[in-house]
Amino acid sequence: MPLRMLFYSLIFLLPLACSKEETSISTPSTTPQVITIRDLPADTGKKGIFTLFRFSDSSIVSNSDSNTTKWDIGFAGTTIITNSGVRGPGQGGAIVLKETDFNSVKEAPETGYRIENSFNDLAIPTGSGNGWYSYDPQTHIVSPIPGRVIIIRTADGKYAKMQIISYWKGNPQPIDPFTHKERYYTFKYVYQPNGTRKFD
User: What is the value of pTM for the model shown?
Assistant: First the structure.
């Protein structure tokens, strides 16, 4: 074969080879994953200091950034706050769904989010039976209420769903409030980073 014809043949075949390699590259899954956070400390010294948390990278945010949009929710005792209203400059908010299966929540509601209107009027209500937990005065045990799912609008206007699993360090079963340490949250969540309200 003449050298010139061989040269043109190689030029013609080269793009075909590249195209085949490109189509063989797999695309990573973009489906949001369920993440479990274990034993997040929530004001264990009982000083009224919130542990600030960010969903996007599962990180604790310094209290020096409490007046920024770097955090989404905060934990202190049984109180959970959002970055909204009097608590922070974010677009945060929350809806507490009742008698709901965590996995069946496929999409965050469009409206109905409560914000931190005041230090007493919270996005996630406190008090036994009002928000995510119940308190037994006989045993002094704080327990997550089955079927409660919290939908969070984050500081930057994205969405997450979360469910509290335990309020006790190590999630002990059964719980002895006199020997087990309280104010340690174990919870699971799904965060949607693309800005939509869909969780799958």
Answer: 0.84
